Amino acid sequence: MIRPTKSIVMCCAFGAAMWATGCATSETSDDGAPDQGATAGVAGPRSHGGTEIHTQDDCDPQDPLWVGKCNPNFHGLTFFNDFRAELAATMTARAWEYGGGDASVTSGQSLQVDNRGGEVHTFSIVAEYGGGRNPNNNAISGNPVAAPECLAPASPTNVDIASGAGISVTTGANGTLKPGTYKVQCCIHPWMRTTVTVR
């Protein structure tokens, strides 16, 4: 298979980033199955400003090793073996991350969490960062002990989000997130981490 040159990839990535300035919202996938293929389409443009975080990745659905894990409608460029090699060498895969930086939300606002990647990711509030529910990803990323919250049943603070889908998390006295600072990680890809502050 012929791989595109780095300059072409960077140009395409820049163009895609300029187009994808926001995310779609749809219902979450809560089937609980780690690394399952997603069926939702690619998210469309929409912006949430400082009240948004999003998961992202770069899985290439044309690579047979991603079948069942990467949304076939996603337009990623990373082959599975390249993903695993980077993870083994650095204990992280740079394109698999929580984008948008740390979030700071005024109490009473909703926090939008969208999945801009091709794989299922989770929005999981944890007391301390740790491994997730995929033992292979835990071991290769240097997170051998799973965060207990990642092994718990699905809840408003431990949600699977399918490719192209999103959730809205309420904040405030009657919301899911009360005022405070929260550690957030993906329980499938445990190096994907961010924080959310409700003020």
Structure description:
By secondary structure, the protein is of the alpha+beta class. The chain has helices spanning 6-19, 80-90, 135-140, 148-151, and strands at 52-56, 97-99, 103-105, 111-115, 121-126, 158-161, 166-169, 180-185, 193-198. The protein is globular, with a radius of gyration of 16 Å.
The number of helical runs is 4
The residue-averaged pLDDT reads 81
Q: What's the N-to-C terminus distance?
A: 50 Å
Structural class: alpha+beta
- Uncertain stretches: 1-49
Radius of gyration: 16 Å
Q: What is the tally of beta strands?
A: 9
Arrangement of strands in the largest sheet: 3-9-8-5-6
Sketch the topology as an H/E string, one letter per element: HEHEEEEHHEEEE
Report the portion of residues in β strands. Answer: 15-25%
Shape: globular
The level of helicity is 10-25%
For the biggest sheet, the summary is:
5 strands, mixed
- Work out the oligomeric state of the chains in this entry: single chain
